[in-house]
Design brief:
This protein folds into two domains: about 130 residues, Rossmann fold; about 100 residues, N-(1-d-carboxylethyl)-l-norvaline Dehydrogenase, domain 2 (Orthogonal Bundle), CATH 1.10.1040. About 50% of the residues lie in helices and about 15% in strands. It is built from nine helices and seven strands, in the order βαββαβββαβαααααα. Strands 2-1-3-4-5-6-7 form a seven-stranded mixed sheet, with helices on both faces. Strand 6, helix 3 and strand 7 form a beta-alpha-beta unit. Helix 8 packs antiparallel against helix 9. This is DUF2520 domain-containing protein. InterPro entries: 6-PGluconate_DH-like_C_sf, DUF2520, NAD(P)-bd_dom_sf, TM1727-like_C_sf. It comes from Microbacterium profundi.
Length: about 250
C-alpha cells in the first residue's frame, strides 16, 4: 500500500444514508476538500458521482446499491460484515460514532478495506487515507469474523460495563459516581492490554487462584442481581482459561 495515496481533489462522492456515520463522513470528506453530495436519504435522487458510499443498514445495501449504480462510477458500503456482492469495495471505520463527532474523528483510526479488484481496493485505500485513517485489508472470507472482533471490543464491553454499573448500584454507589470511579480502572486495563496483551495483564482473584473470593463475588451477585449470574459464570470461565495461560508462561 502506498502511504501517500489519497483521492484526487476533484473526486465527487455521494453519501447515501443520513444516519450517524453518514453525516460524520460527509463532514470529514468536505473538510478534506472533496465535493460531497449529501448525506442523502435512500429515496433522494442520487446525482452523478465518482463514488456512491452507502451508509445504510446492512439489509438495505442491495436495494441502495442498485439505485446508486445508475449514477456512480463505483459503489461502496461501510458495513464491517457484509460481503461485496452488491458493491465494488468496502471501507469500515473501526470506531464507534454518535453522529456528533468532529471531522477529524477518523484521524489515525483503523479502517478495514476490501475490494473486488485491485483497482477497487486501491480506491478504498485512498478513501481511507483521505479521511486520515489507517487502512488495513480484510478479505471477504473473514469479514464477519473481523466484525465480531470489533463487537467484542466495543458493544460487548458496554454490556460488561453496564453489569458493573448495576452491581455498583447494588453496593450503594450511584450510576454517575460508579462510572467516574470505574473509568480509571478501565482505562488502565485497556492500556495494559494494548501494551502487553490479556495474558500478561490479567490481575484479580482468578489470576491469583483465589477461588474463595470468586465464590463470594458470585454469592453477592446471586443475592442482589441474580439475572447477572449467568454472565458472571460465562466470564469467569473464560477468565479462568486466560489465567491458565498465564500460569503456563
Amino acid at each position: 500500500m502506498n502511504p501517500t495515496a489519497v483521492l484526487a481533489p476533484e473526486t465527487t462522492i455521494a453519501i447515501i444514508g443520513a444516519g450517524r456515520l453518514g453525516g460524520v463522513l460527509a463532514s470529514a470528506l468536505r473538510a478534506a476538500g472533496l465535493t460531497v453530495h449529501g448525506p442523502l436519504r435512500r429515496d433522494d435522487e442520487i446525482p452523478t458521482a465518482d463514488i456512491a458510499l452507502l451508509c445504510v443498514p446492512d439489509s438495505a445495501i442491495p436495494e441502495a446499491a442498485a439505485a446508486a449504480r445508475r449514477s456512480a462510477t463505483r459503489v461502496a458500503h461501510v458495513s464491517g460484515a457484509t460481503p461485496l456482492d452488491d458493491v465494488d469495495f468496502s471501507i469500515h471505520p473501526l470506531q464507534t460514532f454518535t453522529g456528533a463527532e468532529s471531522p477529524d474523528v477518523f484521524h489515525d483510526i483503523g479502517a478495514a478495506i476490501s475490494g473486488r479488484t485491485p483497482a477497487d481496493k486501491n480506491t478504498a485505500e485512498q478513501l481511507a487515507r483521505t479521511l486520515g485513517a489507517r487502512p488495513f485489508g480484510v478479505d471477504v472470507a473473514h469479514r464477519a469474523g473481523y466484525h465480531a472482533a470489533a463487537s467484542f471490543a466495543s458493544n460487548f464491553v458496554l454490556t460488561v460495563l453496564d453489569a458493573a454499573e448495576q452491581l455498583a448500584a447494588s453496593a450503594g454507589i450511584r450510576g454517575d459516581e460508579a462510572r467516574d470511579l470505574l473509568a480509571p480502572l478501565l482505562r488502565r486495563t485497556v492500556d495494559n492490554w494494548q501494551r502487553n496483551g490479556s495474558t500478561a495483564s490479567l490481575t484479580g482473584p482468578i489470576a491469583r487462584g483465589d477461588e474463595a473470593t470468586v465464590a463470594r463475588q458470585r454469592g453477592a451477585i446471586d443475592e442482589t442481581d441474580p439475572e447477572l449470574v449467568p454472565l458472571f459464570d460465562a466470564l469467569a470461565d473464560a477468565t479462568h482459561a486466560i489465567a491458565r495461560q498465564k500460569a503456563a508462561v
